[in-house]
């Protein structure tokens, strides 16, 4: 049943008609728990409150279903405006983005040009940009672009997904760049030809790549709500004397608040992934697909 629900929500999240309908009705039925608002101003206020609780942030202007150059340019402008707003408000936040929203599926050079504009602006402010990893079809080109950007920029990182067979080799290859990586389990539905189908195998690979990247001496963002993975990381850094400024825990806005606050109280750096914008539907559906508890939360809101 859980697998069926996950597949259903992932499919709905990719549906353009459903996305348009969601935009019409706004952040209702519980979506506001996971999305900080539709405007930059709303998101900055959320960031400010998280900062006050000791947490730092990475802001993501949500943008999916980009099909024209004009839409890609608009999304790029929103990323630039987000960086401006972070700097002007003085909040502690990086920027996260998806390269498909910058035109990757239209033209690679268009995407590269937009990425350079964003990284130049971030560099002016002394800020950092994280490239979100998308589905398997975009994995290699995303890594290729990241490698090219790292020839010029040191304020950019990328995400690596534990559920892919190729990931261990990717970690080895990225070591030469001293890559700043966010390590995740992976949230997209992938073929068993390219990804581990069993959770236990994903978990073991996740532990393996966390250990590899940390022991390679590279900055590591462990992005998980799984307390077993968090405890694994805490024990690993303790055993090897890895200082707290070499890693951080990352979690999603609206999920595991108590755990986030507990880690902050223990002295760990916690960064909250805070999405905002009108194009929130695909993100929201992926959150429902990941955790059945999120579905029940939404259903309760619908019938209040």
CATH architecture: Alpha-Beta Barrel
Strand residue content: 5-15%
Average pLDDT, all residues:
88
The helix/strand class is: alpha/beta
Record field, number of beta strands: 8
Q: Look up the CATH topology.
A: TIM Barrel
Helical run tally: 12
| Domain count | 1
Query: What series of H and E elements makes up the topology?
Result: HHHEHEHEHEHEHEHEHEHH
Q: How does the overall form come out from the CA principal axes?
A: globular
Indicate the low-confidence ranges by residue numbers: 296-304
* Strand order in the sheet with the most strands: 1-2-3-4-5-6-7-8
Distance between the termini: 25 Å
**Top CATH class:** Alpha Beta
Largest sheet: 8 strands, parallel, barrel
Pfam families: Pro_dh (PF01619)
EC number: 1.5.5.2
Binding site for substrate: 98, 286-287
Enzyme class: oxidoreductase
Report on the structure:
- The protein has 304 residues and is α/β, with parallel strands linked by helices.
- It has one domain (36-279): TIM Barrel (Alpha-Beta Barrel), CATH 3.20.20.
- It contains twelve helices and eight strands.
- The chain is globular.
- The model is unreliable at 296-304 (pLDDT under 50).
- Substrate binds at residues 98, 286-287.
- Its cofactor is FAD.
- GO terms for molecular function: nucleotide binding; proline dehydrogenase activity.
- Residues 45-298 form the Proline dehydrogenase domain.
């Amino acid at each position: 049943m859980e697998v069926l629900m996950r597949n259903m929500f992932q499919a709905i999240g990719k549906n353009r008609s459903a996305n348009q309908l969601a935009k019409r009705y706004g952040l209702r039925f519980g979506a506001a728990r996971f999305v900080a608002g539709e405007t930059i101003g709303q998101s900055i206020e959320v960031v400010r409150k998280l900062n006050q609780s000791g947490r730092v942030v990475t802001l993501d202007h949500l943008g999916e279903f980009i099909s024209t150059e004009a839409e890609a340019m608009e999304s790029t402008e929103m990323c630039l405006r987000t960086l401006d707003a972070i700097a002007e408000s003085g909040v502690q936040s990086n920027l996260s983005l998806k390269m498909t929203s910058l035109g990757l599926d239209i033209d690679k050079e268009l995407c590269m040009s937009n990425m350079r504009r964003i990284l130049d602006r971030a560099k002016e402010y002394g800020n950092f940009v994280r490239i979100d990893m998308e589905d398997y079809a975009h994995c290699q080109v995303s890594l290729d672009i990241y490698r090219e950007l790292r020839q010029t920029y040191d304020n950019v990182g990328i995400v690596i997904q534990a559920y892919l067979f190729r990931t261990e080799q990717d970690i080895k290859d990225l070591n030469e760049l001293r890559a700043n990586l966010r390590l995740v389990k992976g949230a997209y539905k992938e073929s068993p030809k390219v990804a581990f189908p069993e959770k236990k195998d994903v978990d073991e690979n996740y532990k393996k790549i966390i250990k590899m990247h940390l022991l390679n001496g590279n900055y590591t963002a462990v992005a998980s709500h799984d307390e077993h993975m968090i405890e694994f990381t805490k024990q690993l850094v303790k055993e090897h004397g890895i200082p707290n400024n070499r890693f951080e825990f990352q979690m999603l806005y609206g999920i595991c608040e108590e755990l986030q606050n507990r880690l902050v109280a223990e002295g760990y750096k916690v960064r909250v992934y805070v999405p905002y914008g009108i194009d929130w539907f695909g993100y929201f559906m992926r959150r429902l697909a990941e955790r059945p508890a999120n579905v029940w939360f939404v259903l309760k809101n619908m019938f209040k």
